[in-house]
Amino acid sequence: MKTVIFAVTTEGAGAAGRIRDLLTEENFCKGSDIKVYIKHKSDTLVKDRCVILFDREEMAGYVRREFPRADALIFICAAGIAVRMIAPCLEHKSKDPAVLVVDDGMNYCIPILSGHLGGANELARTISDRLKTIPVITTASDVAGLTAVDMFARSHDLVITDFERAKVLTAALLEGEKLMVVNEVSDTIDLMPADIPDGYILADSGYTSGMRDDKKISGTADNGRTAINSPGKDNEAGYGKKLRITYKKRGDHDEGWNREDMITLDLVPACLNVGIGCRRGTDRETIRAAIDRCFGLHNLHKSAIKRICSIDLKADEEGLLAYCNEEGLPCTFYSADRLKRVEGDFAGSDFVSGVTGVDNVCERSAVAEGGRLIVRKEAYDGVTVAVAVRTRMQCQKNRPRGLYVVGIGPGDEKGMTIRAREVLDKCRIIAGYKTYIDLVKPMLPGDKEYIETGMRAEEERCRMALEAAASGRGDVCMICSGDAGIYGMAGLIYELSCEYPEVNIEVVPGVTAALSGSALLGAAAGHDLAIISLSDLLTPQALIEKRLRAAAEGDYVIALYNPASKKRTGYLKKACDIVSEVRNPDTVCGYVRNIGRKGETVRVTTLKELGNVEADMFTTVFIGNSMTKNIGGHMVTPRGYRL
Ligand code: SAH
């Protein structure tokens, strides 16, 4: 697409540079197809390949010259300047290029000419998507409310394989012709009659599944949109302009490819997962060649690739990462264990098993999220490739799959952040440790689904939450007490999340026990604070002791979490002994139990007494620093003001 950008200010020149980079990155244009005209003095902002303008008159001359040749003109200036400049050049909407105006500050992007046919709206949306301008689309109600082909493709997340063809088809639509939509991937994309705009006709699945020979076309009437009741030649002739939703390239032998009245445009959904296995050190080009050959051989559109998948051993495989990076493709790596659990019939190999711990990498990783293998393991120059098509469950368009990891604070509703409360309300599924579920249940309406697990089943709990989110049943809220990150589930969710790439994660912070406890005690954490968990379930005892010593020596206020559990007793005493090695036995200490819950207890004491306190799993313990005071029964660590 030939694009010309004009900018008349220094700021505008910077914007021109960004738009040029975007258009080349998005493959809207080849670098050589973009020209940039900027005002002199601002040339440092767009370093190369631009023409310097001297004055308005000269600019008008360039506009006149470029207008008939370009596909798009982008003016970075006041709309008035652009309108005056293009006014003498206007011919006909079937010929005029797309014209857009972007303001200097890159706040707005306004298509002022050829919004549909010339693709100005589409271009404005692309620019706005990436550069965060606001697209000011003014054509919505014109052209009889018809949806241009590019808009149709866009609304279903389909890639247009040929913009020229898209333009011709939109032009036909505007002339009153009907466009037939042939959905060849109906197990991936669910097109309902309501998804089909006026002027488009959805061919039924009989047409798509190999019934071309008898040219059977049928459909049901729905506002007159999809009524094609009589099969036969007339229909075929009447609906020669087609949009094929497919990941398969058509061969040139396909009917009507070269006839003007029979134009077919392929619209491609990103629905293919490509599983890759390779030897250590395989370079980027070898990987590219393998994928290209595989896709060439099987007539697959490369724009249908949704993601590349492999085993986590390859997470640092430079060639593979470089390929994905260059193609802008996400890459998902699965553990051998996860791959082993994928059900199906795969081409197993003892060699692969010996190296990776699982008998097949490419096929299993391609279908790890579900879907159906369409190309089984093939080897090209040492790279194994398998391709799976994602089925409906995994890629219904734009369905949000949110997993919120929410810190609910100490326990009562008032200790929650507004955001946490909001998320609890909006999520349909609530997951968490039973005790916390019991805390929130009374605050919520009765129609929620709960996923409860016991104490030790953290990994299982997180997996269940991720699976629930991935299933698309609704947004999921995984609740943690206090803060979601501090000895909470947020980290584990992220660690497991690479296996569930379609799930969007948001962590909602909460008031951790060190803060709510400190406040109940007075101002226990008034200065530098070390939070240490005494639980040795996941942390070696020696490391806990080392940190205790370091915190004691550093004269930190120390907040001790998990000071005891039903099975672990004596830990608090041990911790007090360690701290007492360097701290005064009269150091002011405190502890709180069941903050914000039934049985809330707050006590201030000293280090020498603290070891004898009976802590339980709902207790948080505070050891003051050398400055901490007992002020009228409150534990206060001064900030250091001289009073
Ligand atoms: N994510 C939580 C901590 C979980 S670890 C948070 O940020 O607060 C569990 C430990 O946190 C408990 O053993 C206890 O030390 C502390 N804790 C959590 N909730 C508490 C409460 N309501 N009252 C007192 N201590 C609490």
Describe the 3D structure:
The chain has 21 helices and 30 strands. It is an alpha/beta fold and 643 residues long. The chain has 5 domains: 3-138, Rossmann fold (3-Layer(aba) Sandwich); 149-269, no CATH class; 304-395, CobE/GbiG C-terminal domain (Nucleotidyltransferase, domain 5); 399-508, 3-Layer(aba) Sandwich (Cobalt-precorrin-4 Transmethylase, domain 1); 518-636, 2-Layer Sandwich (Methyltransferase, Cobalt-precorrin-4 Transmethylase, Domain 2). The strands form 6 sheets. Strands 3-2-1-4-5-6-7 form a 7-stranded mixed β-sheet, sandwiched between helices. A 5-stranded mixed β-sheet has the order 8-12-11-9-10. Strands 15-14-13-17-16 form a 5-stranded mixed β-sheet. Helix 4 links the parallel strand 6 and strand 7 (134-135). Helix 9 crosses helix 10, helix 16 packs across helix 17 (490-497) and helix 19 (541-553) runs parallel beside helix 20 (571-580). The chain is globular. It starts with a strand and ends in a 7-residue tail after the last strand. Bound molecules: S-adenosyl-L-homocysteine (SAH). S-adenosyl-L-homocysteine binds next to strand 26 and strand 28. S-adenosyl-L-homocysteine binds at residues 410-411, 480-483, 486-488, 512-513, 561-562, 592-597, 617-620.
